[in-house]
From TrEMBL:
InterPro entries: Xdiol_dOase_suB (IPR004183). It comes from the Bacteria. Pfam families: LigB (PF02900). This is Protocatechuate 4,5-dioxygenase beta chain. It comes from Croceibacterium atlanticum. Keywords: Oxidoreductase. One of its GO terms (molecular function) is ferrous iron binding. Coiled coil: none annotated.
Amino acid sequence: MARITHGLTTSHVPAIGAMIDQGRTDDDYWKPIFAGYEWTKDYVAKNMPDVVILVYNDHASAFDMKVIPTFAIGCADKFEPADEGWGPRPVPPVEGHADLAWHIAQSCILDEFDMTIINEMDVDHGLTVPLDVIFDSKDNKTPKKWPTKVIPIAVNVVTYPPPSGNRCWMLGEAIARAVASYPEDLNVHIWGTGGMSHQLQGPRAGLINPDWDKRFLDDLTRDPQRLRTIEHIEYLRETGSEGIEMVMWLIMRGALGPNVSELHRHYHVPCSNTALGHIVLKNEDAA
Ligand code: DHB
Ligand code: FE
């Protein structure tokens, strides 16, 4: 039986990818940002998942105003890095797990979560920057091949209306049921990406709210039920227009179940325009 053993979150700031590509991860500004992932790199290398279910948002790379799926699942064998304006990043293609992805799609849809099935999709910084910060070498070089398969779950948090945090949580629970009914013995991680507080536009651009972010990180283990009820307006007011990306963390948290411990945390301000948050959670029931 497949098991979701760990949940992990990280912000997905595009400048992190640019610094990796330009070999500038040792610059004074960037060094502490990358240092916060060292613990996780070691831990994940020793507990390598067979598959990562990677919850992220596309930033008008694969989707645009023509098509806006609320929840989409990548069922292809391969996803190429997107051209985000400067040519595709020099990272390897992302290898999918089509069989498990179709199983999750079927299970979720019959469980009344109508996912959009995607068979062809390029993936942008929302997906590849998290892979880099966890799977790069100790000196922050992108590997020639990603060490695990990845099932992309793309969530619309760019165009109003995004899904509610509670709906995201319930999708996480449905994904967990899907994984638990997959017959092969697989170690599965679920990652939630994006966040934390940040606003990229308008008069409040640059907004960061460390107190709110810290409480959100604390409550992933202390009071996760509270997080389900946070309304869009609170994300917007307290964490800026792009802070809404954090609803994706609740898909991760809903999938992990009740018995969760925090293994590692990294919080750093600022990272580009963002409060960078990263946490590693273990599903104690799957150990
Ligand atoms: C930044 C953060 C994001 O989440 C994003 O998608 C784009 C830019 C930033 O901090 O610059
Ligand atoms: Fe983003």
